[in-house]
Amino acid sequence: MKDQLIQLSKLLKGELYFDDTMRILFSTDASVYRKWPLAVAFPKTKDDLKQLIRFAEENNTSLIPRAAGTSLAGQCVGDGIVVDVSKHFGQIVEFNEQEKWVIVQPGVVRDDLNLFLKPYGLFFAPNTSTSNRCMIGGMVGNNSCGTTSIKYGTTRDHVLALNTLLSDGSEALFESVNSEGFQQKIKENTLEGRLYQQINTILNTEKYQNCIKSEFPKAAVSRRNDGYAIDALLEDHEQLSSAKGIFNFCKLLTGSEGTLAFTTEIKLNLSDLPPSHTALVCSHFSSLESCLKGVVTAMQFQPEKLEMMDDIIIDCTKGNDLYTSYRFFIEGNPKGILVTEFSGNSDEEVAEKCQQLIEAFQINNEGEYCGYAHPIVQGADMKKVWGLRKAGLGLLANIPGDPKAVAVIEDTAVAYTDLPAYIADFNTILKENKLSAVHYGHAGAGELHLRPILDLKKQSDRELFRTIGTETAKLVKKYQGSNSGEHGDGIVRGEFVPLIVGEENYQLFRSIKKAWDPKGIFNPNKIVDTPPMDKDLRYEADQETRTFDTVFDFSDTEGILRMAEKCNGTGECRKTHLSGGTMCPSYMATRNEKDTTRARANILREFLTRSNKENPFAHPEVKEVMDLCLSCKGCTSECPSNVDMATLKAEFQYQYFKENGIPLRNRIFANINKLNEIGSFVRPLANFGLGNPLASSVLKKVLGVAPQRSLPLIQKKSLKKWFKKNRNRLENGLKTKKGEVYFFADEFTNLLDSPIGIRGIELLYRLGYSVKMPEHPESGRAHFSKGLLKEAKHLAWLNFEIFKHIVNEKIPLVGIEPSCILTFRDEYPRLVDEKDREQAKKLGQYAMMIETFLLQEANKGNITPKDFTSETKHIKLHGHCHQKALASVSDTAQLLSIPENYHVEVIPSGCCGMAGSFGYEAEHYEVSMRIGELVLFPAVRKAKQDTLIVAPGTSCRHQIYDGTKRKALHPVEVL
Prior knowledge:
Strand content: 5-15%
Strand order of the largest sheet: 15-12-14-13-17-18-16
Number of strands: 25
Largest sheet: 7 strands, antiparallel
Shape: globular
């Protein structure tokens, strides 16, 4: 087959990969399944797709359509060719504001589409929890619903037309047709015509009509996506004879999981943006039963959203620094919370709706069933409530060990009036099997995402996986509900389709699949003819989780492999720059799955689990996927499972170098501080080599540095030497002493940015703070980034020993460069001896950026606007990646806003693209600059010349200069 794939690749304008690396990366999605594909294609044109269809037909293989790969049921895994539309099929093709529709390609991200539509007062209403990276093609494939479905319906309700390629390679446009148009279609002697003929025969047959009506989920179940939606087509067909009757095959294709045709363009109906006045009623209940009974009451008031979370989700956020502020509305220890959202044309209208609901709870129910608290949340705090609702499940992935909340029966839906009884029966099943589960989700639509805690590495739990799937499907049938509410059948539920819709309807599904796709080209063995749901699981039965001797301490996750396994595939790292955030900058620039945090976790898991090498880190495939990781730390805060890829990469490099040796450039960059110290003794000569075009070009070539880069020069005096010389003068000039700090003279500030360090120390003294600077080594930041962990560990220990007894709440340790000072908070606790770990964490709490310290003092009233000039200044601020992940950009923004006439705007940028030495390296230069061009560079170029560009990070300032020729300042220079 390799020769045929080589020939195919020559015919495509896009890319085709069949190497092991890409096959590994596309062997999983967000489900529990794993299956190696034959190849991975990134088609560029419709002709590419036709070539792929032709190839699949001639070579007896299949095509598995894939967008963001966030499917939870295994829709995107298979042994054919994975066809990824996310890279090249992401255009908004046409938009009609007056008629309120838009035509998009399947790779358009849902939230990105709505950003485009917002200025027109319109939006695409279905809203998933993955909306910042899920794509319209995937939403159509699964018939996605989300939090807004109780008002706006499902994706199926908004699909107007689909441009498709059929299994014979022909093009077909499916849209609404009236009776006359339907009859014309039937007469066509084409595959499309035969499809209309078949469905007409089915829907005209009384036996099938009765079977569909009696066996499909009852009409009160608003989310119903089991098998193919012939029930929706039957409703259309019965209305065809009326004057306004129409038939639209899009209802069948939506929710068909790419098994019937390949979609190239999607026409969507758009809705008016909801009213801007909104509020939440967060009703607390002392039992799960009472919470679910509250759903019936709340739905009487036609809310915009009605979501539920149980105590397991809520408790997961306890003690989590990031989510502590999100818990502000929680009173006591609720077993369940209902979050009801209302909107209106005024705050008064919304307040009245909220009050009516609260009164209804108190009137219609008795005792515990009325709920014991109903706080109303408005404004910016609403985001925190929804953030808490989304956060819990990701935090569950952080539970140490192998048992996890597994997506197996998380998509069941019943009539919301049946929800209390259904969940009671479901929990009986769990109790009988000695299991517990998470309950959360779309209560207003009768759908809770139920996730039992299972360890799929154990044979016993794999058996429970099947038992729970089977028993729950039977329970769903009892309530005439849907086993697939919005996540699809795929592999995990396909086996149970006959049980849910009946054997006769299932045979109709098989005949439909055969008519549309006679050779099984499109995503076979999904929905129909599905393999057993416990086959092709990501983990082997009773497999052992390997342990490794690492430099970093991974005991909090029970080892480095389990750190990688925390990634559950939900793909937060695939969001675009339009959605904001930092993770994952290389993916934002390249739009390649290979450059995501998910891919890096997958490749590590694969080789650390299955490699036969003594050193499984030493695989070039892992090195290839790790290559574009900028170690930005965005994943530590933005990944729902907090997969710390920067630490994983550093450890990987160290382990890889054990067998393959440390490259010269890594040694040089890691030891750049020592080289700068040597260069400072011959500064004019060193700077000539760094700054002279001819001399520096030779140096860059030797080191593999991009020729376009400017190199930082060594300053005339180091910060440490300046401070020793000037400390007495500064102390004598201190009129009123408000406090004191230890100052960390990091390796970049000491020799390269010493003028900034000087400004920082002078600022502290002018504001009334005495500075101490004990002799200390560098932070080790460069060693971390280049994989020299033994040296980094030694530097961490030295700094820990120096500062552990002298730094405290009253006398903190402050620094200028975020990436260096924050090593105390991030890396150091993972590197010190186990007996010192808690003390290292405590030290990290008191090690902070200088802006954080000054803002804390300002909040105490020790620093006021009177301390600064009244001159007017406009500031655009770019935050450092490590600051965003481990501290706060808002600290810097608030501090810069203290002078009464300073106006600060935070640039909504992610990573600048430089990331220490990354952007200097020749092979990374292009990606580095593409990252900068996403948000940062355009924002800087648009700024007026008298606007100050501010960036705390030294790499960021160099990147801004190289990309825009604007000089960026450190905050202390501005203040």
